[in-house]
């Protein structure tokens, strides 16, 4: 969906130049048959996406999304028509009558005009109906420009998938998959292998620190800006096209090319644990939290209590690098072990009405110094946690700026084909009522990972955190 998001970036400007200022939305009512609601049970088997499902998603968005009441619905339909015609072009097909109908800002009337045009196009290319429907619905969601808006289809897995397997090239780079989709402008050159997970990358002899100079013949950065080529590093099943990389190993000066074919690979089971803990220097508790999943806060607190027994600690180091988020309730509960009587965030409606997220003061305070490791992989609930640590002065942040992917908690709605449409009804603000979305949380101590560090197995952010905790002690 990256290409669709890029294509929709100029739609607001196009609307502004092509149309007069929109009147207040008319036709606010939801047509019969398009009502959406949160799922009450696991969805059944996915069925085909049709124009009726797209209609349901369109009115569901206008009726429930954070800014749905004030949204110019023409932006959604224009994005949808752009994607539809681009899909025709990709398939070498053309429909002479595939022209955008005039839109007025009346939500119901505009939908009726769009649906009429859509059905006429589909009737002329019946073999493309399924593809056209999918890209059209994806484009409506992408037009929101919201990193917590998503259309979730049911996962497909390889026939020989085993629980815990990974799929892809078998590597993680310093620019991760979610960042490619949501905030590529935050990526910093050079692109290099951060971790070899297994699979094709391991078989080809790649190592951490190897510079990726080209992907399928395209540069990953041009004039310092990340390019869409990076997305090819993170294929998802059933994508299976080989990816050609040109690499540089700085320690030897070797340059070579390799073709990596996506596939299943066995992952390190220890790496799949959401909470891992150990003692560092016999007086610092290190806890890595990869996701704020249910009960993760209690697991962290139990780990700290266990490692604290029988010794005096100098502090706690929480490693949230690569933590893609999860439950804001879990993030708040863990914060509550470091402070009471504070608001950790605010959730606000489009008219500025905000609801505070207070600490859970039933959680026992740890009364220990805190350092948190963060990076561009820290997103959503992880940024909720990090911004509260910074604003409430609970500890120090070490690493690099977080992802800036925290528009607001998403609510899912069941569509007629058993897929889920999700987006936030409120937007997130930090404890100081600052916007974090698309900006991220800056570290107190900027310590980036370099290719040389990765190649040597060094962790400069962890080393800095140890120094800070020992100094505090």
Mean pLDDT: 91
Shape: globular
Q: Radius of gyration, rounded?
A: 24 Å
The fraction of residues assigned to DSSP E strands is: 15-25%
Distance between the termini: 48 Å
What proportion of the residues is helical, as a percent range?
Answer: 25-40%
User: Helix/strand-derived class?
Assistant: alpha+beta
**Number of discrete helical segments:** 13
Going across the biggest sheet, name each strand in turn. Answer: 11-12-13-16-17-21
Secondary structure tally: strands: 21
Low-confidence stretches: 1-24
Q: How can the largest sheet be summarized?
A: 6 strands, mixed
What does this structure look like?
This protein is an alpha+beta fold and 473 residues long. Helices cover 30% and strands 19% of the residues. The chain has 13 helices and 21 strands. The chain has helices spanning 2-8, 11-18, 51-64, 74-90, 107-124, 129-142, 177-182, 199-203, 296-308, 328-335, 381-391, 451-456, 460-472; strands spanning 150-152, 166-168, 171-173, 193-196, 211-215, 221-222, 225-226, 243-249, 254-260, 263-265, 275-280, 284-289, 315-319, 343-348, 354-358, 370-374, 396-399, 410-414, 420-424, 427-429, 445-446. The strands form seven sheets. Strands 11-12-13-16-17-21 form a six-stranded mixed beta sheet, with helices on both faces. It has a three-stranded antiparallel beta sheet with strand order 1-19-18. The protein has a three-stranded antiparallel beta sheet with strand order 5-8-9, with no helix packed on it. Strand 6 and strand 7 (225-226) form a beta hairpin. Helix 4 runs antiparallel to helix 6, helix 9 runs parallel beside helix 10 and helix 10 packs parallel to helix 11 (381-391). The longest helix is centred in the first third of the chain and has 18 residues, at 107-124. The chain starts with a helix and ends with a helix.
């Amino acid at each position: 969906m990256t290409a669709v998001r890029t294509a929709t970036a100029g739609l607001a400007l196009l609307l502004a130049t092509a149309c007069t200022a929109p009147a207040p939305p008319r036709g606010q009512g939801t047509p019969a048959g398009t009502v959406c609601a949160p799922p009450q049970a696991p969805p059944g088997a996915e069925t085909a996406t049709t124009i009726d499902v797209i209609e349901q998603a369109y009115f569901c968005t206008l009726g429930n999304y954070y800014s749905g009441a004030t949204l110019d619905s023409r932006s959604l339909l224009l994005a949808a028509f752009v994607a539809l015609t681009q899909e025709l072009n990709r398939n070498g097909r053309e429909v002479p009558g595939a022209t955008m109908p005039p839109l007025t800002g009346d939500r119901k009337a505009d939908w009726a005009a769009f649906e009429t045009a859509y059905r006429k196009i589909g009737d002329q290319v019946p073999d493309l109906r399924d593809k056209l429907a999918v890209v059209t619905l994806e484009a409506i969601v992408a037009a929101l420009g919201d990193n917590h808006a998503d259309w979730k289809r049911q996962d497909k897995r390889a026939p020989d998938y085993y629980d815990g397997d990974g799929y892809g090239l078998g590597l993680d780079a310093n620019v991760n998959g979610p960042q490619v989709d949501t905030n590529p402008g935050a990526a910093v050159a050079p692109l290099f292998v951060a971790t070899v997970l297994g699979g094709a990358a391991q078989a080809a002899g790649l190592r951490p620190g190897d510079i990726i100079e080209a992907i399928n013949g395209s540069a990953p950065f041009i004039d310092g800006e990340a390019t869409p080529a990076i997305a090819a590093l993170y294929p998802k099943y059933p994508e299976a096209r080989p990816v050609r990389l040109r690499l540089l190993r700085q320690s030897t000066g070797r340059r070579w090319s390799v073709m990596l074919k996506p596939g299943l690979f066995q992952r390190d089971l220890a790496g799949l644990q959401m909470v891992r803990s150990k003692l560092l220097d016999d007086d610092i508790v290190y806890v890595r939290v990869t996701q704020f999943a249910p009960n993760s806060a209690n697991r962290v607190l139990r780990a700290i209590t266990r490692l604290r027994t029988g010794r005096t600690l100098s502090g706690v180091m929480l490693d949230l690098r690569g933590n893609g988020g999860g439950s804001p309730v879990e993030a708040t509960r863990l914060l509550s072990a470091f402070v009471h009587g504070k608001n950790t965030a605010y959730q606000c409606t489009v008219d500025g009405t905000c609801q505070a997220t207070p600490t859970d003061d039933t959680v026992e305070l740890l009364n220990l110094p805190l350092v948190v490791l963060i990076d561009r992989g820290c997103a959503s609930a992880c940024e909720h946690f990090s911004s509260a640590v910074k604003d409430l002065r609970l500890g120090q942040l070490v690493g690099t700026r977080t992802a800036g992917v925290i528009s607001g908690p998403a609510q899912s709605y069941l569509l007629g084909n058993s897929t889920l449409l999700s987006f936030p009804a409120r937007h997130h603000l930090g404890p100081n009522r600052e916007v974090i979305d698309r900006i991220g949380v800056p570290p107190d101590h900027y310590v980036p990972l370099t290719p040389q560090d990765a190649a040597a197995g060094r962790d400069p952010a962890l080393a800095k955190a140890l120094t800070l905790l020992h100094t505090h002690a």
